[in-house]
Amino acid sequence: MAKRFVIGVDIGGTNMRAALVDEEGRVVNRMRAHSTEEPLQGLIKLLASLMEVKVEAIGVGVAGVVDRATGTVSRSPNLPVIEGQPIAEELQRRFGVPAFVENDANMAALGESWIGAGRDSADMVMLTLGTGVGGGVVYRGQLLEIAAELGHITVEADGLSCPCGNTGCLESYVSARALTAYVFDALESGTESLMRDAYEGNYYRLTSEDIYRFALEGDTLARDSLRRAGRYLGIGIASLVNIFSPEVVVIGGGLLGAWEILSKEATKEVERRAFKALVGRVRILPAVLGDDAGVVGAARMALDRI
Ligand SMILES: [Zn+2]
Fold it and tell me: 8: left (phi > 0), else alpha (psi -120 to 50), else beta?
């Protein structure tokens, strides 16, 4: 029997990625472009160059709140120009195959569950720690088609304000943005740190990767900021473990460089807080697919829906 192929797409605030994926999750070819003012037109151009074999469907993951029925994005704070655009309809018309739209963090979760860190586990929760925090839940091998805004569970009752309108969201403590904001605050209020002299004193240019580097060099503020993020991450995971009783919690995204510090603190917190019987069966693992998780998950979603 001939091999089946689908296309998986991952549209973020900065980049869009597309990949030709076979039915076993292998990426055969991949393309990448900047997300422009006209993302849909850019995407069509990108996909045309991937149509080297007959594909059966197109799966698209987009950062934002997705309307599955119409294949559109109803709200996308990081890519507002995509809001309301007929993504599924337009792709279907141009390429003559079914197209489906889902949330990007859900797609990353499905990708890791299919061929990544969760491949041997039926029940998985994934958190993606990037500029913000995204999430997805896979239960008995199936992606739960729920909001899964796991970055916005409350971990501090009267905590920091979140753009979502709540205070004390997980995202306000463990995202890359939260990490740098915490360090900038501490430096402004005079905390001693080697990071003060970074970028010739223009320390506002520090990234989360820089903070991790300084932590490895033994800088106390850098280490404390990562430990704090890890602790809040653990508080969030403890609730997710109590709700979903997953076999694995997979952590992905740009903060993964600091995995050792984050996971150590998070694990301590999960062990303290979650039900013992559930902690006993859960493993907390780093994601393995990197930037491919989203396109691979979107491809799987497309295969599942045709
Ligand atoms: Zn929030």
Answer: beta
Kindly report, residue by residue over 119-166, the tens digit of the pLDDT. Answer: 999 999 999 998 889 999 999 999 998 889 999 999 999 999 998 899
Same domain, 76 and 150: no
**CA pair distance 67, 283, nearest whole angstrom:** 32
- Tell whether 279 and 300 lie within a shared domain: no
Q: What's the helix, strand, coil split of the chain in %, to 5?
A: 45, 25, 35
Report pTM: 0.93
Q: How far away, in angstroms, is 168 Cα from ligand 1 center?
A: 7
Closest CA to 104 of 149, 151, 154, 63: 63
Same domain assignment for residues 128 and 267: yes
The tens digit of pLDDT for each residue in 168-177 reads 999 999 999 9
Do residue 58 and residue 166 come from a single domain? no
In a domain? residue 216: yes
Return d(Cα 155, Cα 141) in angstroms, integer: 28
- State how many domains the chain has: 2
Task: Please give the DSSP secondary-structure letter assigned to residue 169.
Answer: B
Distance 178 CA to ligand 1 centre (A): 12
**Domain, as residue range, for 34:** 5-109+291-305
How far apart, in whole angstroms, are the C-alpha atoms of residue 234 and residue 229? 9
Do the Cβ atoms of 301 and 143 come closer than 8 Å? Answer: yes
From the CA of 164, how far away is ligand 1's center (Å)?
4
Q: Is residue 232 within 8 Å of residue 155, measured between CB atoms? A: yes
Q: Is residue 116 part of a domain?
A: no
Q: What is the whole-number distance in angstroms between the Cα of residue 114 and the centre of ligand 1?
A: 28
Q: Does 196 fall in a domain?
A: yes
| Cβ 206 vs Cβ 198: under 8 Å | yes
271, 89 Cβ separation under 8 angstroms: no
How far is residue 279's CA from residue 271's CA, in Å, rounded to a whole number?
A: 6
Residue 225 exposure: Cα atoms within 13 Å on the Cβ side:
34
